[in-house]
């Protein structure tokens, strides 16, 4: 799932249909505990790490794939997919 910020906002408003249950998708795409005062944690990490952000994404992809059998199963695979899609997105931005 490679959604734009606008698509994710529309999904959160209930204006989009997604293949996953809303509550599960929220915990993958926008966990409430990763948003403080309107700032998504992932955006703060990207700003703070600059070019190291790609390595951060790679690490999270590995982490969620590594543990999916032992912790959160399908949800961990969806999280790994989210980080992979984010890596693809910024790679495309950097090569455009």
Fold and architecture overview:
- The chain has 96 residues and is mainly alpha-helical.
- It has one domain (5-95).
- The chain is 66% helix and 4% strand.
- It is built from 5 helices and 2 strands; from the N terminus they run ααββααα.
- It has helices at residues 5-13, 22-29, 41-49, 53-67, 74-95, and strands at residues 35-36, 39-40.
- It has a two-stranded antiparallel ribbon.
- A hairpin with a 2-residue loop joins strand 1 (35-36) and strand 2 (39-40).
- It is globular, with a radius of gyration of 14 Å.
Contiguous helical run count: 5
Uncertain segments of ≥5 residues (pLDDT<50)? Answer: 16-21
Instruction: Describe the main β-sheet briefly.
Output: 2 strands, antiparallel
Write the H/E string, N to C: HHEEHHH
| Overall average residue pLDDT | 82
Cα shape? globular
The helix content is 55-70%
Q: What's the domain count?
A: 1
Please provide the count of β strands: 2
Work out the radius of gyration. Answer: 14 Å
Which structural class should the secondary elements be placed in? mainly alpha
Euclidean distance between termini CA atoms = 21 Å
